[in-house]
Write a structure and sequence with these properties.
By secondary structure, the chain is an alpha+beta fold. Helices cover 27% and strands 36% of the residues. Strands 1-2-3-4-5-7-6 form a seven-stranded mixed sheet, with helices on one face. It is globular.
Length: 174
């Protein structure tokens, strides 16, 4: 897709992050309640959203902010690290093939610039679009993580996907 790129967060993006913290329609089915609208400015001042343990990049399409991708560190054994990634697109950019491409680009970027062996992502069972997006981005379905997320008043399952360094990269220009 022409015009798609990932870039560091800029001060002008903070208004979008505030909207994301307080507007249920912007978030969609992953809404987990209101968040601190001052938090984006505090985080940006701290490290520009490029931290050692958690980071974000803006997904831009033809110069417009389409959403963001994020990653945070995890470990199953407290010594071997992996990244868990996520993507959030503004409603008008969903369903256009941007999400899977952005996640594939982020995964390639992380494999190129960090020594992790594993990158994983989780999504809700009802989020069929994200499941398809992860598969298109080269991830493999691993299984169900039962009752791991509290959302909308109840504990819910998530589906876990992963891509390993040895898995093939996926071209994003088709």
């Amino acid at each position: 897709m022409d015009g798609l790129r990932l870039r560091p967060v800029q001060e002008k993006d903070l208004e979008y992050f505030v909207t994301f913290a307080v507007d249920r329609d912007e978030v969609g089915n992953t809404w987990q309640g209101f968040r601190d609208p001052q938090a984006p400015a505090k985080r940006f001042a701290e490290d520009g959203y490029l931290g050692q343990e958690t980071s974000r990049l803006i997904v831009e399409v033809n110069g417009e902010t389409a959403g963001f991708v994020s990653w945070f560190v995890g470990s199953y054994d407290e010594k071997t690290k992996y990244w868990e990634i996520g993507a959030a697109l503004r409603p008008q950019y969903r369903g256009r093939g941007i999400g899977w491409r952005a996640q594939a680009m982020l995964t390639d970027y992380l494999f190129e610039h960090t020594p992790v062996q594993r990158i994983q992502a989780a999504t809700q069972p009802e989020n069929i679009a994200e499941q398809k997006s992860l598969l298109k981005a080269g991830f493999q379905f691993e299984g169900v993580i039962r009752a791991c997320e509290f959302r909308a008043g109840e504990y819910r399952d998530l589906y876990l996907y992963s891509r390993l360094r040895s898995d093939p990269s996926v071209p994003v220009d088709h």
